[in-house]
Each structure stands twice: as C-alpha cells, then as structure tokens.
Amino acid sequence: MLIIASANGAVGIDAAMRVLKNGGSAIDAVEAGIRLVEANPAERSVGYNGYPNILGQLELDASIMDGKTLNSGAVAIMRGFPYAISVARQVMDRKLPHVMLAGEGAERFAREIDAEQWASMLSEEVKAIWRERLIENSALLDIDDLDDDTALLDAVVLATDPERVAGTVNFIVIDGNGDICSGVSTSGWAWKYPGRVGDSPIIGAGNYADNRHGACACTGMGEMAIRACTAYGLVSYLRAGLPIGAAGHKAMRDLRDLDGDFIGGMNLIALDREGNHVGMTTRAGSTYIYQHAEMDAHREKEREFVEIPARWAGEERLRDDGSYC
Ligand code: GLY
Predict the structure, then answer these.
(1) Which residue puts its alpha carbon closest to atom 5 of ligand 1?
(2) DSSP string covering 238-285, please?
(3) Bridging pattern class, strands 180-186 and 287-292
(4) What kind and span of H or E run contains 133?
(5) CB of 53 closer than 6 A to ligand 1?
(6) What is the pLDDT of residue 63?
(7) Is 59 in the pocket of ligand 1 (CB under 6 A)?
(8) What's the CA-to-centroid distance between 59 and ligand 1, angstroms?
(9) What pLDDT score does 310 carry?
C-alpha cells in the first residue's frame, strides 16, 4: 500500500493511510485525503477558502479516476460545495452516462445527491486579499462596479501573472489489492476569468490512472497540461515500457514544445504499478510526499527539476531566486 501526494496533501495523508489500513479501497483513500485539504482554510488553492476568480467567486474543479476500471468522474466550475472530490466521485459512482459535470449542472447534481453545501466559501481574510490584489494588479478594473458588461480580458492577463498564482492537490494511491486511484482538486488559478477550466477535472490532462501501467497527476499551469495531455502522456510512456523516471522526463519535456505567449510552471507526481514513484517540477526546490503502509509517518522528497523557460504576455520570466516560475 502506498500513497503519494503533492506537499499540501500532508493534512490528509494520515487519514488516507488509515482508510487503507482499515481495508478501504484506493478510491476511498484518495477521497478521504483530498477532503481534508479541501476543508483546510489555510490552503488557498483547493476547496474552501481557495483564491477566487477575478469577480471574487470561488469556482472548484476536481476529478477522480479508478485505475482498475478506467472509470472516472469530474466536476468543473462548481460553486458552493466545498468537497468537490466527493461530488466528482459520485459522478463516477452514480453510473451516470457522463464523466464530467460543469457549472450549474454540477451544482444541481451536488444538491440532488445531498452533497454538503456551505453558505460562505470564502473567509473575510481571503475576500480582503482578493480586493487588495485586484487593486494592486489590475488597475483596469473598478472593483466596486463589476457587472456582466465589465471588460475582463486585459485585467485577467495582468492579474493571473503566473509568478503569483499556483496550487492544486494531487493524491495517487495503491491499495491492498494493488488497485490504483488518482484524484485532483483545485480552486484553479487565482483571479482567473470566470468559467475558466483547468487541467484538474480533465482526464488525461491533470489526472490519469491505469492499474496496468501506473498513474500521474499534475499541479501548475493547467492550460499547459491540457495542451500536452501530460497525465495520459506519462502513463502512455509507461505503457510503452519506459521506467518511471524516463516517462516523467519525457512527459515534462513534451511541455517544452508548447509555443505561445503564456507558459508558466508545471509539476507532476507519478507512480508505476510496482510502486516506484517520482515528482517533477519546473520550480527548483518543490517537494512531494509519500508513505508506504510500513512507515509511521510520511516523508517529503524533493522533485526533480526540469527547466521550462516561462513566458508571460510574450516576455521571459525569471524569479528572484533565479528559477523560472
Ligand atoms: N492545475 C490547476 C489549474 O490549472 O487549475
């Protein structure tokens, strides 16, 4: 039994391991682990109290994939329901003829299955940060006068500068039967355009699991993982016979081929069916966590750095510490 997760999964990994030790499935463990990250008010990129879109609305994306059956469920741009991973799981488990529900449809489904709904999804502190950042980064907007006719295009390009926005949680679990499940949940980019969907709910982009080969999940600039099909790409390299390290490098290097004005940071975690695992990043020093059933506590491990020069609105970006974002 093994769990790997992005570093912000530390608040949920003990609960996920307890599920496994009590005989629960990889799917149960992924859901249990991610729910605690979604409920963590200190986590600003997932679930309750994540940073909102440019209008100050919290829109959540999540997906879960069962590597045994290749079933999956996902929700996107869902408001008002903190446990996006549980709603995504229900999309998978309720035997709907669908894989992903978005927006009002996702919220309608969440109500129908009695998912937990919270009247307020943002603390006063986060609302104040949203206000402050928008005033600071996007003087183009009159924040007290936002309506359906407000032009947001230029303001979003300024506000979503990739040096300032990041996040998302990944969990990948192998259970006692050798079944693999992967899950991803996010509030997406801070200050994003309303309705923007990232890689997290898109099977093959931010999340993919297949018992026969392994699994991969991503954090970072979702648009890149969508364009490169990063999670499926890595698993397809495993399927072609590459070891996990080489598969990870190839999936990351595929991202270098992306052209265009908007290239930011990307990270992935992945494992093969034997439980060999890797973390990779374009941001030096970034870590992920893992725990085998025999371990008393999880360990943190540095991800392998893969350089992908970042660009924003046509300009190369270099961080103060010398690494690209
Ligand atoms: N990787 C999360 C997102 O781009 O929304």
Answers:
(1) 188
(2) HHTT--HHHHHHHHHHHHHT--SSEE--EEEEEEETT--EEEEESSTT
(3) unpaired
(4) helix 124-137
(5) no
(6) 98
(7) no
(8) 12
(9) 84
DSSP state letter for 108: H
**Is the beta carbon of 219 within 6 A of some atom in ligand 1?**
yes
For a mutational test of ligand 1's pocket, the pick from 53, 200, 230, i.e. the residue with the most ligand atoms closer than 8 A to its C-beta, is 200
Number of the ligand 1 atom closest to the C-alpha atom of 225: 1
**Residue ranges, the chain, pLDDT below 70:** 138-140, 162-166, 317-325
CA atoms within 13 A on the CB side of 59: 24
Instruction: Give the model confidence (pLDDT) of 99-157 as tens digits.
Output: 999 999 999 999 999 999 999 999 999 999 998 888 877 666 777 777 777 888 888 87
Q: Residue 142 CA to chain centroid, in angstroms?
A: 31
Cα(194) to centroid(ligand 1), Å = 14
CA dist 255 and 155 (Å) reads: 26
Please tell me the predicted confidence (pLDDT) of residue 249: 98
Report the alpha-carbon distance of residue 261 to residue 269 in Å, rounded. Answer: 26
Q: Is the dihedral of CA 100, 105, 111, 112 positive or negative?
A: negative
Structural domains in the chain, CATH included, are 2-317 (3.60.20.30)
Nearest to 281 by CA among 299, 290, 269: 269
How do strand 287-292 and strand 266-272 relate by DSSP bridges? unpaired
Residue 165: both structure tokens together: 């926005």
- Pairing relationship of beta strands 71-78 and 100-102 according to DSSP bridges: parallel
Q: How far is the CA of 120 from the centre of ligand 1 (A)?
A: 22
**Structural tokens at position 92:** 């998978």
287 in catalytic set: no
Alpha-carbon distance of 311 to 226, in angstroms, equals 17
267 ligand 1 Cβ < 6 A: no
